[in-house]
Write a structure and sequence with these properties.
This protein is α/β, with parallel strands linked by helices. Helix content is 41%, strand content 18%. α1 links the parallel β1 and β2.
């Protein structure tokens, strides 16, 4: 299939004071073998020279559209502005400091064109702590070749501890995302998890078993900013309330049976145990996967670098780099 015949893709790049990272991320997005229909870059009131960098790229790339928020709104409202502006059949939300690898758009869109029922497509995602150099591949072992995975197959993968949807390598079906109302602001750091896993268990996913994106984690990254304390508890409570709502009744059994809530480790388990309305999410798979996830987090954050690499290699079955 020719690139022009692939489904239309809208890329959303929210940016706040990431001028130093924009040249790398934008070049990777704009030099894909199958170009995006549009790349929507939204500056969220940066105080650095981000807008100047964005405008320079816009002058040289006809599919890049640059917008600016009149004031700083935050990453989730900025993402939702991008969703409103997007005209493609599929949406790829990405961070200004992440990087896609060659072939990501083409391989993902080709698979989606063969399986239009899928709610999204994802690939193996390379996670990298920039300061320490610790690197590992998330999503290894989900499938041996490019394929469509039904909701039932996702549950089976979850039970085996092999289900991971790397949201930094996830291309979402636009109507499935809008069906959720876009990204839920109250979910903050976990809004992408909800936007990926609910459509995944509703419609299935396409999966490309190659590392085709790089998730770069800095000390100041949004990902790092709120995963502890009372605010994080409130976000997890909101997530559970949404999953327990009538709107998610169709996917709730799959989310429970797959054990994917174990991604949130002990903070999630404490909430589940403390609120009887959430007890139906508890099962052996969740408990087992939470133990493993907690060990992984300890290994990544506490152990010496060489030992952390060994632990991650055992968990994800791919050599670290």
């Amino acid at each position: 299939m020719k690139a022009a015949e692939l489904p239309r893709l809208s890329v959303i790049v929210p940016n706040y004071n990431h001028a130093a990272h924009l040249p790398v991320s934008l070049k990777a997005l704009l030099q894909q073998s199958a170009p995006a229909h549009e790349v929507i870059a939204i500056d969220d009131g940066s105080s650095d020279n981000s807008l100047e960098v964005l405008r320079e790229f816009e002058r040289n790339h006809s599919n890049l559209r640059v917008y600016r928020n009149e004031r700083n709104l935050g990453i989730v409202p900025t993402l939702n502005r991008g969703v409103e502006l997007a005209r493609g059949q599929y949406i790829f939300p990405t961070a200004a400091d992440d990087e896609v690898l060659p072939g990501f758009f083409e391989k993902s869109l080709l698979l989606l064109s063969e399986h239009p029922q899928a709610g999204l497509s994802c690939t193996v995602c390379r996670w990298r702590y920039v300061e320490s150099g610790l690197t590992w591949d998330m999503g290894a072992g989900m499938a041996a070749r490019p394929t469509y995975l039904s909701p039932d197959e996702l549950v089976r993968l979850g039970k085996r501890g092999k289900l991971f949807l790397g949201t930094t390598s996830t291309i979402m079906r636009a109507d499935a995302l809008r069906e959720l109302g876009g990204f839920v602001p109250e979910l903050r750091w976990h809004c992408d998890w909800f936007a990926a896993f609910v459509p995944a268990f509703r419609y299935g996913v396409c999966f490309v078993p190659e590392p085709l994106s790089s998730f770069n984690i800095y000390r100041e990254s949004f990902y790092q900013s709120g995963h502890k304390g009372p605010q994080h508890r409130q976000v997890l409570l909101k997530l559970l309330e949404l999953l327990n709502s009538p709107a998610c009744a169709d996917v709730r059994p799959a989310i429970r049976d797959s054990g994917v809530l174990s991604l949130f480790a002990l903070p999630m388990l404490r909430i589940l145990l403390s609120r009887n309305e959430f007890w139906p999410f508890l099962n052996w798979t969740l408990l087992h996967r939470t133990t493993r996830r907690s060990a992984e987090l300890i290994g990544r954050n506490v152990l010496p670098l060489w030992l952390a690499r060994w632990v991650l290699n055992r968990f994800y079955s791919l050599p670290t780099r």
